[in-house]
Inverse folding.
């Protein structure tokens, strides 16, 4: 089981002004706390609602606010902190730690600092302050929108009946937006491995760590911890990083991470974790040596092997809701489950793109369809995405392999343009790290089918390129548009 986000104690004293500021940031409007149901006493009281949203993550909050804006009576149920994974244990704190890691690495390189280890505590203080501010902001905006918040565990006694502690709510429509949680490592000793949730509770970083996984979270945390001075071993099940990204970008990123000191182990099958002499030993096999067990020893182990739908305990199976093979809720094109009054969005669905903006767009669309004007759903053909490691990755559209597959396997219908260069930022710092841009093109028309970038500016550039790709961007447009100099982005135009 994963540990819940908890605000850690700060070992070092902080000035009175900082403590007062922290109290101001973390002050939240009062919300209703629903106690657990008692076994005896008065029967639960019932109330009516047009729309009950279970889960106050990004998608749930967006759906609740949008439905309330249409005049619906909305109740939002959350058992933890408002904001869900993205705000409390994901996107926001992770990116803030990445910023802190970059500063620590700069100090280490330019000022002969201590390797960044002493900066972790300061980063956690900043992260917790920002998370508290966002929790309060979300709560206030929900209250202003007229959304009633209930804190507690929700369970569906029937498709239109939700039990929260001593409350029973009868809902016309119910939305499940409970997100996902880290998957536990399914090997003997797997309980010795922490998860991404645990990282944000750390007061110090270990001297060494073995990170198991090769996707977004594993790569990002390996990069962050390495910049904080931690010795990192990254054990990847596949033969390349980020299997859903373009192979050229993944290969270049592996080279870049290795150059920073991260030790990469590909084609690994972790079989056992054991604790010996204050360290954790990770046993694994590799395809190149199938009969031989190899080991990595580290002070800590982090498992980032994927996420699973966070639907346990909701009572979905008992009321007949159909689930996917991996446990998520199966929905139709309108995000409706097998029970017509019950909807699901975001990471708790059986099949979905696990990104915060996707859940937000889905939640708003469901609320609009049920309680307002039926608007157009967002375009999910060009979803920009990023990996906040260093160097960062940004991508939108088709990879080269996907484009060839879409062309019926005819590789001659697809061409690519690749540029490698060293940015001015890296040259100034004496860093020879190469950046890389790759465009995937229709060979005949020159239309850009996909853009894949590796540079710290890549996420910001890709956001704009997503609009351009939707509008049918061609290489001729890039070559006839004047670039801004000197920038990283101008490499796309030459």
């Amino acid at each position: 089981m994963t540990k819940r986000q908890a605000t850690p104690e700060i070992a070092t004293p902080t000035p009175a002004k900082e403590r007062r500021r922290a109290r101001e940031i973390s002050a939240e409007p009062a919300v209703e706390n629903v106690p657990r149901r008692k076994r005896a006493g008065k029967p639960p009281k019932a109330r009516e609602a047009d729309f009950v949203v279970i889960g106050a993550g990004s998608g749930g909050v967006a759906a609740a606010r949008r439905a309330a804006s249409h005049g619906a009576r909305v109740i939002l149920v959350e058992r933890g902190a408002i904001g869900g994974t993205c705000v409390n244990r994901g996107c926001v704190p992770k990116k803030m730690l990445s910023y802190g890691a970059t500063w620590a690495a700069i100090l280490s390189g330019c000022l002969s600092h201590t390797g960044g280890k002493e900066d972790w505590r300061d980063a956690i203080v900043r992260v917790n302050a920002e998370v508290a501010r966002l929790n309060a902001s979300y709560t206030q905006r929900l209250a202003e929108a007229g959304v009633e918040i209930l804190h507690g565990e929700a369970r569906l006694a029937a498709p239109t009946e939700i039990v929260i502690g001593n409350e029973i709510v009868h809902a016309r429509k119910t939305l499940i937006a409970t997100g996902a949680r880290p998957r536990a490592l399914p090997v003997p000793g797997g309980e010795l491995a922490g998860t991404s949730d645990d990282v944000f509770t750390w007061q110090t970083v270990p001297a060494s760590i073995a990170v198991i996984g090769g996707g977004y979270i594993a790569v990002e945390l390996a990069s962050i911890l390495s910049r904080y001075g931690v010795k990192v071993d990254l054990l990847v099940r596949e033969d390349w990083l980020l299997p859903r990204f373009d192979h050229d970008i993944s290969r270049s990123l592996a080279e870049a991470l290795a150059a920073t000191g991260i030790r990469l182990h590909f084609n690994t099958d972790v079989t056992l974790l054991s604790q010996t002499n204050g360290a954790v030993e990770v046993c694994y096999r590799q395809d190149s040596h199938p009969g031989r067990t190899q080991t990595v020893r580290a002070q800590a182990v982090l498992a980032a092997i994927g996420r699973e739908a966070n639907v346990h305990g909701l009572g979905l199976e008992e009321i007949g809701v159909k689930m996917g093979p991996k446990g998520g809720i199966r929905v139709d094109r309108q995000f409706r489950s097998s029970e017509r009054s019950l909807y699901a969005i975001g990471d708790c669905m059986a099949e979905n793109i696990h990104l915060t903006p996707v859940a937000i767009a889905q939640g708003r669309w469901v609320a609009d369809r049920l309680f307002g004007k039926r608007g157009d759903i967002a375009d999910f053909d060009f979803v920009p995405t990023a990996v906040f490691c260093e160097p960062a990755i940004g991508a939108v559209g088709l990879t080269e392999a996907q484009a060839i597959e879409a062309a019926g396997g005819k590789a001659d219908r697809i061409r690519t343009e690749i540029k490698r260069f060293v940015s001015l930022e890296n040259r100034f710092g004496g860093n020879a790290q190469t950046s890389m841009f790759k465009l995937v093109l229709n060979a005949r028309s020159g239309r850009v089918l996909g853009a894949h970038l590796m540079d710290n500016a890549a996420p910001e550039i890709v956001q704009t390129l997503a609009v351009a790709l939707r509008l049918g961007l061609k290489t001729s447009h890039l070559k006839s548009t004047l670039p801004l100099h000197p920038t990283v982005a101008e490499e796309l135009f030459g």
Summary: The mean pLDDT is 88. Residues 329 and 349 are 5 Å apart (CA to CA).
